[in-house]
Model the fold of this input.
Amino acid sequence: MSEFLLVPLALATSTLAATLGMGGGVILIAVMPGLVPPSAIIPIHAVTQLASNVSRAAFGWRDIDWKMSLPITAGAVAGAAIGGGIYSALNLEWLPLVIGVFILVLTWWPLPKPTGSGHVALLALGFYQTGLGMVAGATGPLGAAVLATRNKARDWLVINTAVYMTINHLVRSFAFGLMGFAFLSWLPLIIGMVVASVLGSWIGTRLRGFLPQRDFQFAFKVLVTLLAFRMIALPLLPVSS
Done:
């Protein structure tokens, strides 16, 4: 029953994401190895983050820029098709190590981000965000450069980050279902994490105006780095009988 520790963690990380606009999904996926099997990490994370992001977007619907949805969705579908093929070819026992290394690279050596505010940049965002997400799970921070070219207002960025991540997680959840992942086998855990994620979005939306963001970045990087090293170590540790 240790996997149900993920329910309060989903609440905490969804609250964090709704408050600061980032960080929740990365921390959640970094604590999942060891609590659920490697094959279940990214599919369960995708469904849980779908609930977290769609609820965060719904609570701030007035700030949604609907014009972004179509190009991001088109890119996401293509990215899921390619990323799904890579995921199927992986040895899933080593998946925590792969995710851990990716998180370290993302945290300390950010990947190139498409720039610009047109449809091409949004199409590229949907493509690589979802393609990488099929393998690495948490890729939310990658889209900040694209959205910041449109509007730097905090509420707008938080809500529209939630919109493109909703598209990302919806497409990935559908892709994992087509690939045969048995979501019904994990239904009690998924329901608990979804409810916790929605509640966290509600709490974080109300906290957003009260908490400063300036001191968050360094602490977040240190915490995520420690969790990433834990993920990298898990497949390397001897299995007790």
